[in-house]
Amino acid sequence: MGIKRKIKNYIHIKKFYPLSEKIIIPDENKKTILIVDSQIPTFDKDSASNRLTEIAKFLAKYYNVYLVDWRKEIPNAKSKKYIQNLNDHNVTVYTPFINKYGLLRGKKYFIKNLLPKIDFVWCHRPELFEYYLDFFRAKAPRAKIIYDMVDIHYLRMERGLEIKYDKTRAKEVVRYKYIETELSKKADKIVVISDQEKEFMKSFVDESKLFTVSNVHNLKVNPTEMPSFEERAGIFFIGTFLHDPNVDAVEILYHQIMPLVWKVQPDLKVTIIGSEVPESILKMNSQNFEVAGYVENIIPYYEKCFASVSPLRFGAGVKGKIGQALEYALPVLTTEIGAEGMFLENGVTALIAGNEDYQKFADNIIEICTNRKTWETLHNNSAKAIFPFTIEAQKENIFRLLQ
């Protein structure tokens, strides 16, 4: 790092830091876990971050838990609320600081001091595992390395290429396939996000290394106290647009599905929620197809809309947007690929259409917005649908992972 950059960082830290005042004292009687991610998890912006946040909070009840952002030497000051949220649950998050002698202490200092104490390194996402595998094998030889796949990236990408070929993405598939099917064999433990992906990975790695830790969701409301069918209007889609399947899903919703719906319900409004909206989707904005972008408080949508819709045509893993809707007892409309790994039953806990059956998806939208009985069936079955994703249902498997 050049002298100008060091001075700039020093001034920035003096101005904005510390990002949290809480000091967490490690318990010498507990084992230590270091979680390495590509960012400080933004629980309200993407499914993978929300999942990791919930896992870290749970682990911190039983272990000393530390988290470091792989990419940024100096975390953005906007990360303050995410750091404080984790700190409030006794997760120590790396942030640089200036010591009493005026010296800047950064990421290398943070990791170097942890190395002798680490029992587990939890590498979240394939890039992190690839980057840090050899480093931690050499520097923390007694630590067990856990590779958290999040989802099977190369599988998701291959499915996308079948729909829309992209030369750059095809090259990425080769890299991710190597990490996920070959390099992964060097991990001590591998975390998959669903039993379906666990079954898939058995072809490449020893089954004894595979552990399912899915998204973590809990019912956050009493369904009987939520607004009734008669008090609701409209539907919405939610998801970050850094994720290709979400971009494709909104394009399909706008061009293929909603024109069929509007023939029957011309005034039905759709709201599109999510960060990093591309220009192609911003151009869709209209009175009945509102592109809201990132919304900090999304709870009102769960309270006022008929359903959350996810017309996904490709992807992998389990879908956080579906689990989040179920947390608020909101009916879910999705596709077979969207329902993959989610334990959903068509007509009981969700309405499910074929991946490219646009007419069926449109019919499902009309059904959920006009049939009180169908809406109430899905609404009242939310607790049943979400139970497999509760900590209570997953905690024993997490403890086995960390043996």
Describe the 3D structure.
- The protein is of the alpha/beta class and 403 residues long.
- The chain has 2 domains: 8-217 and 391-401, Glycogen Phosphorylase B (Rossmann fold); 223-388, 3-Layer(aba) Sandwich (Rossmann fold).
- The protein is built from 17 helices and 15 strands.
- The protein has helices spanning 3-16, 47-59, 80-87, 107-114, 126-139, 153-163, 167-181, 195-201, 244-264, 279-282, 299-304, 320-327, 336-339, 358-370, 372-380, 382-386, 391-401; strands spanning 32-37, 64-69, 91-93, 97-98, 104-105, 120-124, 144-148, 189-192, 210-212, 235-238, 270-273, 289-293, 307-310, 332-335, 351-353.
- The chain has a 7-stranded parallel sheet, sandwiched between helices.
- Helix 2 links the parallel strand 1 and strand 2 (64-69).
- Helix 6 (153-163) packs antiparallel against helix 7.
- The longest helix has 21 residues, at 244-264.
- The protein is globular, with a radius of gyration of 22 Å.
- The protein starts with a helix and ends with a helix.
- The model has no long low-confidence stretch (mean pLDDT 91).
